[in-house]
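[step 3/7] inverse_fold.run input=structure_tokens len=341
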């Protein structure tokens, strides 16, 4: 098969190769109709820019880094998928860099990745996006970066996030609408700022409904399946057992669901279970788990869009680079009417 070149794209679009290059690289000052013609020619010819040749002809590597603490989690899989697809569309490549803040040499590892990979930008995922010392390494290296789901916006970074507190409030209201008043909550780890926001949403909805929170039924988990099982065992052994359990992520909700089945409880007839994130585990369970769909892949894709926008390096504080993406409550079979309702 003949290799499609930038000259072929230019001929199809009726422009110069230089203009094609400017469009592919996301540069400014290209008329909308010209940009559309080039993009159409790229799609029709299935043109794939040569990353090595592009990097030789400029000071850029066309390589973005994804820095994340647990690259094999369900959350990470969705983030990587969203980032990879958008990188492909933008003719960039993605490298995934695990971050282990528990290791004393983590700073040297991050510095080594930044210097050796010659990245054009970085996506920093939770919870490591909330480690100031880590973010300072990217600021010090003058490397453009985007924080995913950070606790606060930073003027030196782009940010993409969702409203965790509002989403958790909506999930709690969903359970309250089924007549549940004794609702347990399984917290996430303290290291994740989203954990506190989700708990705040739960408590706000309970307070607004005049439903008391039983503090014995608010337990700490760590976003793992095992911690969900352990929380489920403790909650279902309470003398005054909750009629609904809201776990602040899907892996923990799955742990609660399995524990309920081990205890012989029918879900949702005797116990409602809900989660958060809409990962594969929520869809693989039976009954499937009612959850909050967090736009993980979309947030990762938006982070790539920010990093590949030529304006970002010049206007980091621009509101266009601090995005709030919508969530959705996904109603499935694991929640239903309170047994006493």
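[step 3/7] decode complete -> sequence:
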């Amino acid at each position: 098969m003949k290799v499609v070149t930038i000259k072929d794209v230019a001929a199809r679009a009726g422009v110069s190769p230089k203009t094609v290059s400017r469009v592919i690289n996301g540069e400014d000052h290209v008329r909308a109709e010209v940009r559309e013609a080039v993009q159409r020619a790229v799609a029709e010819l299935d043109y794939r820019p040569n990353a090595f040749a592009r990097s030789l002809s400029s000071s850029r590597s066309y390589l973005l880094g994804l820095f994340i603490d647990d690259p094999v989690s369900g959350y990470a899989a969705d983030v990587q998928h969203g980032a990879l697809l958008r990188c492909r569309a933008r003719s960039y490549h993605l490298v995934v860099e695990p971050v282990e803040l528990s290791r004393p040499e983590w700073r040297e590892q991050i510095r080594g990745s930044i210097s050796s990979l010659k990245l054009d930008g970085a996506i920093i995922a939770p919870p490591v996006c909330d480690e100031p010392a880590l973010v300072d390494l990217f600021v010090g290296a003058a490397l453009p970066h985007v924080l995913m789901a950070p606790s606060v916006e930073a003027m030196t970074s782009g940010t993409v996030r969702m409203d965790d507190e509002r989403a958790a409030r909506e999930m709690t209201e969903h359970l309250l609408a089924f007549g549940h008043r004794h609702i347990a909550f399984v917290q996430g780890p303290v290291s994740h700022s989203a954990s506190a926001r989700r708990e705040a949403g739960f408590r706000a909805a309970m307070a607004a409904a005049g439903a008391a929170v039983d503090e014995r039924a608010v337990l700490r988990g760590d976003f793992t399946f095992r911690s969900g099982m352990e929380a489920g065992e403790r909650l279902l052994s309470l003398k005054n057992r909750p009629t609904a359990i809201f776990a602040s992520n899907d892996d923990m909700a799955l742990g609660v669901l399995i524990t309920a089945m081990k205890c012989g409880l029918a879900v949702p007839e005797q116990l409602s279970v809900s989660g958060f994130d809409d990962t594969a585990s929520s869809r693989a369970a039976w009954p499937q788990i009612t959850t909050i769909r967090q736009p993980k892949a979309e947030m990762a894709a938006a982070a790539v869009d920010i990093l590949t926008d030529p304006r970002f390096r010049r206007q980091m504080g621009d509101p266009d680079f601090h995005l709030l993406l919508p969530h959705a409550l996904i109603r499935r079979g694991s929640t239903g009417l309170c047994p006493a309702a």
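[step 4/7] annotate
The two ends are 68 Å apart (CA to CA).
The mean pLDDT is 90.
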